[in-house]
């Protein structure tokens, strides 16, 4: 085993970063699975540094107005809307 | 007999005429269809109705095809068995106690059971080729950039391509001809797909072709699978192909590199599912929201995502988090570059590279879900191709224990003709 320590608290911390609520049962199960999976990822330590693709560069195109979704279409899947806007939870 | 291949059965007729006239095509449920539910196999999108068509769907209609429904899949494409779908598993038409493979299991099963003439799937780490192999049909993973991903609900953009499934190599190639080509809506598409005639390449002529057999991927396969594959290669040799062994050191790290990259991209891509613009809402039942945006967001994702999706989003977040980025993500990118270079070198010595598509026979339903790591390891033969952005095909190559075995042929970038030709000689 490697030193990869994954306890339920660590899983809870990552879940907070990822904005996913977990049940206590999921926390326990994921902790055990994550330790095993992250252990297998340790094999990547043996990979040599390889010259990859050149760095990505920005490629710009002309900004042209074209047809898009209507406001009604864009809002059609929203669970809640108000006055033609998406309705979301309070900020902060 | 129904194999639960479809999540939504809906006939979308075409008003145009073309090479797919009279052909019934099933479409994986992560490919957007205007006015028809597109769920990605997830509770999160159970009621989602896209207001636009994916480019490939538009082009299918333009070629005269009739879309016959949206096929079942592992949730958001995450799985190798089509058992992680929120809507329940699909069964393998060859043996109903077994899985059809994944994540395009519904598409492969629909074709294998004759419920569609052709189908579209998507392949991020083998998701077209795996179910093709397990169900005894043909599946193609095109070169990255050949087929537009506009309207495909993304899981790991740098790896995935939409690909065809069909009963024969020629029919799969014909469908690829329809969906290949540059698309102004997808800046990663390339000119190479324009005006192709891949179907003509399915001429079965491998005389003089050099086939490099990927020895690591044969030795890792189950005995019966390896035997059927070797018989297939011997047959191609008898048809005039030159066969040589190829060994690539980088392959030993492909699965780990693939999962680190795919999970990292998933954690970022799936951030959009917040229950505000679409998806399961994190609002309380009384209407309105409790708590702030983060609380509502986290509740929405708890309710909307299944365990495999949560597992990958969390592991991806972990791999990208401060302190681990260099250890996991950067190393995985190094591995990707290494694998790419190894493949490119090998393909200067051989016209195509060959291996069994899957190292195992289709497992029984429920047999493999409990151990995610073991399930990930099943993808050893298919993921290197996605990391290297290359085209590959899976073609039925005999049976073992009465179950289908697939042979995989990998070609150079935009060398679709060559892999199609090699596969057509197996039929």
UniProtKB/TrEMBL annotation, chain A:
Region (Disordered): 71-92
Catalytic activity line of the entry: L-aspartyl-tRNA(Asn) + L-glutamine + ATP + H2O = L-asparaginyl-tRNA(Asn) + L-glutamate + ADP + phosphate + 2 H(+); L-glutamyl-tRNA(Gln) + L-glutamine + ATP + H2O = L-glutaminyl-tRNA(Gln) + L-glutamate + ADP + phosphate + H(+)
Keyword Transferase assigned: yes
GO MF terms held by the record: asparaginyl-tRNA synthase (glutamine-hydrolyzing) activity; ATP binding; glutaminyl-tRNA synthase (glutamine-hydrolyzing) activity; transferase activity
GO terms (BP aspect): glutaminyl-tRNAGln biosynthesis via transamidation; regulation of translational fidelity; translation
The entry's keywords: ATP-binding, Ligase, Nucleotide-binding, Protein biosynthesis, Transferase
Subunit and partners: Heterotrimer of A, B and C subunits.
Family under the similarity heading: Belongs to the GatC family.
Protein name as annotated: Aspartyl/glutamyl-tRNA(Asn/Gln) amidotransferase subunit C
Gene name tied to this protein: gatC
UniProtKB/TrEMBL annotation, chain B:
EC number(s) reported in the record: 6.3.5.7
Domain of life: Archaea
Keyword Lipoprotein: no
Catalytic activity: L-glutamyl-tRNA(Gln) + L-glutamine + ATP + H2O = L-glutaminyl-tRNA(Gln) + L-glutamate + ADP + phosphate + H(+)
InterPro entries: Amidase, Amidase_CS, Amidase_dom, AS_sf, GatA
Bilayer-spanning residue ranges: none
Gene3D superfamilies assigned to the protein according to its UniProt record, in alphabetical order: Amidase signature (AS) domain
PROSITE patterns, per the entry: AMIDASES
GO molecular function annotations of the record: ATP binding; glutaminyl-tRNA synthase (glutamine-hydrolyzing) activity; transferase activity
Annotated catalytic residues: 28 (charge relay system), 103 (charge relay system), 127 (acyl-ester intermediate)
Regions of compositional bias (Polar residues) in chain numbering: 82-93
Amidase domain mapped to chain residues: 11-419
Keywords for the protein's UniProt record, in alphabetical order: ATP-binding, Ligase, Nucleotide-binding, Protein biosynthesis, Transferase
Keyword set includes Nucleotide-binding: yes
Function in brief: Allows the formation of correctly charged Gln-tRNA(Gln) through the transamidation of misacylated Glu-tRNA(Gln) in organisms which lack glutaminyl-tRNA synthetase. The reaction takes place in the presence of glutamine and ATP through an activated gamma-phospho-Glu-tRNA(Gln).
Family indicated by similarity: Belongs to the amidase family. GatA subfamily.
Subunit record text: Heterotrimer of A, B and C subunits.
Protein name: Glutamyl-tRNA(Gln) amidotransferase subunit A
């Amino acid at each position: 085993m490697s030193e990869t320590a994954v306890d339920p608290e660590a899983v809870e911390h990552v879940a907070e970063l990822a904005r996913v609520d977990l049940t206590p049962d999921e926390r326990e199960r994921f902790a055990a699975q994550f330790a095993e999976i992250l252990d297998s990822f340790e094999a990547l330590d043996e990979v040599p540094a390889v010259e990859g693709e050149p760095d990505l560069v920005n490629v710009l195109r002309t900004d042209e107005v074209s047809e898009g979704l209507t406001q009604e279409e864009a809002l059609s899947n929203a669970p809640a809307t108000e006055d033609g806007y998406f309705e979301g939870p309070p900020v902060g | 007999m129904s194999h639960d291949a479809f999540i939504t059965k809906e006939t979308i007729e075409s008003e145009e005429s073309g090479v797919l006239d009279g052909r019934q095509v099933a479409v994986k449920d992560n490919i957007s269809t205007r006015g028809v539910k597109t769920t990605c196999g997830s509770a999160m999108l159970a009621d989602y109705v896209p207001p636009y068509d994916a480019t490939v769907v538009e082009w299918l209609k333009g070629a005269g095809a009739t879309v016959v429904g949206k096929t079942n899949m592992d949730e958001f494409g995450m799985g190798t068995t089509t058992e992680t779908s929120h809507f329940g598993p699909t069964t393998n038409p060859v043996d109903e106690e077994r899985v059809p493979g994944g994540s395009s299991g519904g598409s492969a099963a629909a074709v294998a059971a004759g419920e569609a003439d052709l189908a579209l799937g998507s392949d991020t780490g083998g998701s077209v080729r795996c179910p093709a192999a397990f169900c005894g049909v043909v599946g193609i993973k095109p070169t990255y950039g050949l087929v537009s991903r506009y309207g495909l609900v993304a899981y790991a953009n740098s790896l995935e391509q939409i690909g065809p499934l069909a009963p024969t190599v020629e029919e799969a190639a014909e469908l690829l001809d329809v969906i290949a080509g540059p698309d102004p809506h997808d800046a990663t598409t390339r000119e190479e797909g324009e005006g192709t005639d891949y179907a003509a390449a399915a001429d079965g002529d491998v005389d003089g072709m050099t086939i490099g057999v990927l020895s690591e991927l044969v030795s890792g396969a189950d005995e019966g699978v390896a035997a059927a594959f070797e018989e297939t290669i011997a047959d191609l040799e008898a048809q005039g192909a030159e066969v040589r062994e190829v060994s690539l050191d980088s392959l030993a790290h492909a699965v780990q590199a693939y999962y680190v990259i795919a999970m990292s991209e998933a954690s970022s891509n799936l951030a959009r599912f917040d229950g505000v613009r679409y998806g399961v809402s994190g609002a309380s039942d009384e209407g309105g929201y409790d708590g702030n945006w983060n609380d509502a967001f986290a509740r929405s994702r708890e309710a909307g995502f299944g365990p495999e999706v949560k597992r990958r989003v969390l592991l991806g977040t972990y791999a990208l988090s401060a302190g681990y980025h260099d250890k996991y993500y950067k190393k995985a990118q190094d591995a990707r570059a290494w694998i790419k270079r190894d493949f490119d070198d090998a393909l200067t010595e051989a016209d195509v590279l060959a291996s069994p598509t899957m190292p195992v026979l289709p497992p029984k339903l429920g047999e493999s879900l409990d151990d995610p790591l073991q399930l990930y390891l099943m993808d050893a033969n298919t993921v290197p191709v996605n990391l290297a952005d290359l085209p590959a095909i899976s073609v039925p190559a005999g049976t073992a224990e009465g179950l289908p075995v697939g042979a995989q042929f990998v070609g150079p970038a935009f060398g679709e003709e060559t892999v199609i030709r090699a596969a057509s000689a197996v039929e």
